[in-house]
Amino acid sequence: MNSILSRRRLLQSLSLFPFLAGGAGTFGQSPVKGNIRQSVCYGPFRSMPLDTVAKQFAEMGVQGLDLVNPDEWEAVMKAGLIVTLSRAPGVSIPEGFNHVPNHGKLLEIYTDLIPKAEKAGVKQVICFSGNRNGKSDDEGIRNCIMGLKKVVPLAEKHGVTLIMELLNPFGHKDYHADRTAFGSQIARELGSENFKLLYDIYHMQLSEGNLIETIQKNKDVIGHYHTAGAPGRKDLDDEQEIYYPAVMQAIVQTGFKGFVAHEFTPKKEDKMESIRDAVKVCDV
Questions:
Q1: Residues 6 or more apart from 48 whose CB is under 8 A from it?
Q2: Which of 97, 130, 134, 238 has its CA 20 to 30 A from that of 149?
Q3: How far apart are alpha carbons 155 and 184 in whole angstroms?
Q4: 247: enclosing H helix or E strand
Q5: Contact 258/37 with Cβ under 8 angstroms?
Q6: Are 218 and 184 in contact (CB under 8 A)?
């Protein structure tokens, strides 16, 4: 077991090292500047051989896969990619920390998952506010803080960060953390480096706009980013309204050292071409 874990950590460190040294890609040749560390959500690529996915992503300068299931961790790492954000099996978007009856189940799930993540070298796991179901913002925030206070100490102990996703209220009707202010109040009251927000640029464009100023004001509580074209949640092209180079430059200026993961449905028949274009757009 120890040898397997050592191999995982070695692979992860090897895949990260060229970027930290100022380069990227194979044999020290950098296909990207590396100011934005990029990842891709695994969903659209699960049907492809992982080795093929890993090779093509490495050639683009992509370092990792996002929203990976725990039973996929080992294979992803063996392929030389970082698990940049893990799913939490049994956790659903509607049933989150904003309702006290959910706390027991969530504590059980994360108590099991977080130590496993540490052993595997996975640094971030996802969590959700849950749907309102009649709760006010104040009550939802209070309940989230109450429930997370039981989990965050475990995350701190194991060096794992809980990442709460912000979602728009149109595609995810009734979801409570549909604005940055909701999540940022939770994060600031918890006051832990092991709880951060997933600022989904697509979702927050639909929900509240004012992306750059919001990112700048909340740089202390944002731990992860997702991209997608708005509207439509597709490629980061000229047919959507977000000017991603400016948003990425704003992220760089905050000193952010985490990952920006592409979470969109590629338009092109060649999905890799869509990702390749997105990497270039975000490589500021």
A1: none
A2: 134
A3: 18
A4: helix 244-253
A5: yes
A6: yes
- Least Cα distance to 76 among 15, 135, 153, 140 occurs for 15
What's the half-sphere exposure (Cβ side, CA atoms, 13 Å) at 123? 14
Residue with tokens 């090292």: 17
- Domain 2-282 in this protein, CATH class: alpha beta
The count of residues in the chain is 284
Which element (helix H / strand E) includes 114?
helix 103-120
This prediction's pTM: 0.89
What are the residue ranges spanned by the domains of the chain?
Answer: 2-282
Eight-class DSSP state of 222:
E
Structure tokens at 110: 């994360």
Quick: pLDDT tens for 132-177: 999 999 999 999 999 999 999 999 999 999 999 999 999 999 999 9
How far apart CA 127 and CA 153 sit, in angstroms, is 15
Q: What is the pLDDT of residue 120?
A: 98
Q: Euclidean distance between the first and final Cα of the chain, in Å?
A: 41
At 100, give phi and psi (nearest 5°).
Answer: -55, -40
Q: Identify the DSSP state of 166.
A: P
